[in-house]
Amino acid sequence: MINVIIDGIKVSAPDNASILQAAELAGVKVPTLCYHPDQAIKANCRVCVCEVEGLPLLQAACSTPIRDGMVIRTNTPAVIEARRTILQLILAHHPQDCLNCIRNKNCELQALAEQYAIRENPFELMVRGLPRDTSTPSIVRDPDKCILCRRCEYACSEFQSVNALGLENRGNHAMIVPSLGKDLLESPCVMCGQCIHACPVGAIHENEEIDEFLAAVADPDKIVVTQMAPAVRVAIGEEVGMATGDMDMNVLVTALRQIGFDYVLHTNFTADLTILEEGNELLKRVKEGGKLPMFTSCSPGWINFCETYYPDLLDNLSTCKSPQQMFGALVKTYWAEKMGVDPSKIYSVSIMPCTAKKFEAARPEMNSSGYRDVDLVLTTRELGRLFRMTGLDFSRIAPGKFDSWMGAYTGAAVIFGATGGVMEAALRTVYEVVTGNELKDVNFTFARGMEGIKEAEIDLNGLKVRVAIAHGLANARKVMDQVRAGESPYHFIEIMACPGGCIGGGGQPITKSNAKRAERIEGIYKEDEGLLLRKSHENPEVIQIYEEFLHEPLGHKSHELLHTHYHDKNKKFL
Amino acid sequence: MAEFKEIIMPFKNTPGGIIQAFHAVQKKINYLPENAIIDAAEVFGIPVKEAYGVATFYSYFSIKPRGKYIIRICESAPCHVAGAAEIIASLERELGIKIGETTGDGKFTMELTECVGQCQATPVITINGKPYAGVTPQQVAEILAEYE
Ligand code: SF4
Ligand code: SF4
Ligand code: SF4
Ligand code: FES
Ligand code: FES
């Protein structure tokens, strides 16, 4: 430990701590922009400068290591003056567009401009006037707002190993661009949206489609039906001033009705269904010598990644559609039939923690119902905006119930929202199917938590199944390279594109740190524990849909509606 | 595209080899086409976005096609003060192109550069690396004629 004095406060900090870390220990807040708690130090914005006794120049707190006896001042007039000048320089190249900006009130630059009382700018305003990149259905780039902190690039390359974003040119002409200066769609981008969480400002954001939703609600001919993914509930509270995990599911149901949904159903229903289809697919592959290891297929960012970087391993992917797309295919067939409504009138909206789901829903093959299966995907953030727009007071909303036929779910579906959840849910069912015995303890705790790659060997009455779980595509890459090399010891691998799984999805409330992801994961397992039914095959509506409609897992109807195939994206540069 | 790989390969194990490889490519065709960048990324085992970063970082690399002769006008302070702007105007008149453009016949490209270390007689231009110091607007046509 090293002792330093920060603003008169004595503090001991670890030997390799930076001034910024020591200040945090001392309870002193230093402003930052390029700094990110889960990333390497970049030290390119200079907004964190502080005074160090004995040094003539101000020092960047994020990159300067402390030395024993260092005396640091973080709030002298000279420091404040320097920070204001730095902010003014950044703002002089920044569109003065807060009122119209998707990050209004949730922007690190705006917050600092407010905090440092920036009222006018001595520097001439010079905005570059670069075009927006709207090439993908998921992610929009607005390069004029970029402050060149390079946090997005780090997330894309280091967390995700996608390498879609990089620096172009230098000095005044520097820009963060998709590889080779192309648009995002042409780049290897998998639309996971992790760059959005990394970005301190509004330079990368989701393709916002609130207006499409409002138009559908306003159309009297449309029956607007929603499905909502399990990761949404634990995070949506953050958008409306509640603590993580605090939103009550049944209150949320009423709130969804109040913003205009005619029927509120749940993606959890098809998550349970996925387990029956995918579990049986796995058993079939094991018994019949099919392609192993089998990879899960619920995460569209992961599917894009596999189609981009591992097209040679597409046959290892489960043919199961994601729960969102299974739901989409069923709502305009099975559900429409049961409800006696004309499927052409159904407008199916999914609420997802995910930006890649917008791309997935728009895939041309996702129309097995005879219509586009999912008409619109809204992210958790967009739902938050709709809630705020309609001024709902969550403390006064009476709890409501999900509508029938595709609204029932078990705890196994709930945990799909966290890394390891699909694996755990699958094991709960596969165990009982294979052994014929009741699974007494449904908790497979090896599968839980933020560790990058988790693995185990499960004994199903003598049948040994080796499984692995990876989240974040950089971890997925490690597992995939092993498979490609023919050295993978596993039968079944769960992969989620986003760190932490769907709770850390690119459409979730802006999530700067992994600590927040861990908090949401807690909320997921709490919800699972509170439920009576925790195994997918016990979902009464799932039992019913097999009796009435699908007849058997992997049967004819399932193949038509619930399964799909994948394509090599043939990307020319990676 | 095998030709790019052939040019790039010899630098594979040199430290900073990608920069030398890009120089070698430019020597052949005066700019770095996309495929050369993609090939370099493959040879050096780095993501394309990084190879692209290198290709755009240095002002002596160009990712746009350029003419056979590259005229670079120094815009650093001494040359600037000595009247680089008039030289630019004169070149633009003679060639009918602006800075960053290439003549229709693919012969000349005009670019700006920083100090090329010839400040003893300013302003300075270079044509394919050959410096011309203390240039006057009147000399421009004469210099260009050397390349006819
Ligand atoms: S990015 Fe931030 S500072 Fe820039 S316009 Fe948007 S809210 Fe304002
Ligand atoms: S969406 Fe994901 S893959 Fe695409 S640029 Fe952002 S981080 Fe990279
Ligand atoms: S897009 Fe955002 S995260 Fe990326 S460099 Fe620009 S400001 Fe930083
Ligand atoms: S936060 Fe320290 S330099 Fe950007
Ligand atoms: S300033 Fe022009 S050559 Fe040195």
What layout of secondary structure does this protein have?
The complex is a heterodimer of chains A (574) and B (148).
Chain A lengths: L1 E5 L2 E5 L5 H7 L23 E4 L6 E2 L10 E3 L3 H16 L15 H8 L23 E3 L9 H9 L5 E4 L6 E4 L15 H5 L5 E3 L3 H9 L4 E6 L1 H10 L9 H10 L4 E2 L2 H22 L5 E2 L4 H10 L13 H17 L6 E7 L3 H6 L14 E4 H10 L21 H4 L6 H15 L17 E8 L2 E9 L1 H12 L7 E5 L17 H16 L10 H11 L5 H6 L13
Parallel strand pairs in A: 1-5, 10-11, 10-13, 12-17, 13-14, 16-17
Antiparallel strand pairs in A: 1-2, 3-4, 3-5, 6-9, 7-8, 15-16
Chain B lengths: L1 H7 L8 H13 L4 H11 L3 H10 L11 E6 L2 H5 L2 H12 L12 E6 L11 E3 L2 E3 L7 H6 L3
Parallel strand pairs in B: 1-2
Antiparallel strand pairs in B: 1-3, 3-4
Helix pairs in contact in B: 2-3, 3-4
Order of helices and strands of chain B: HHHHEHHEEEH
Q: Rg of chain A from C-alpha positions?
A: 25 Å
CATH class wording of the largest domain in chain A:
Alpha Beta
Number of domains of chain B: 2
Q: Quickly count the domains of chain A.
A: 3
Average pLDDT taken over every residue of chain A: 96
Strand content of chain B: 5-15%
Rg of chain B, Å, rounded: 17 Å
Which runs of chain B of at least 5 residues are low in confidence (pLDDT < 50)? none
Query: Which overall shape of chain B is indicated by the principal axes computed on the Cα atoms?
Result: elongated
The count of β-strands of chain B is 4
Level of helix content of chain B? 40-55%
Poorly predicted runs of chain A = none
**Small molecules in complex:** iron/sulfur cluster, FE2/S2 (inorganic) cluster
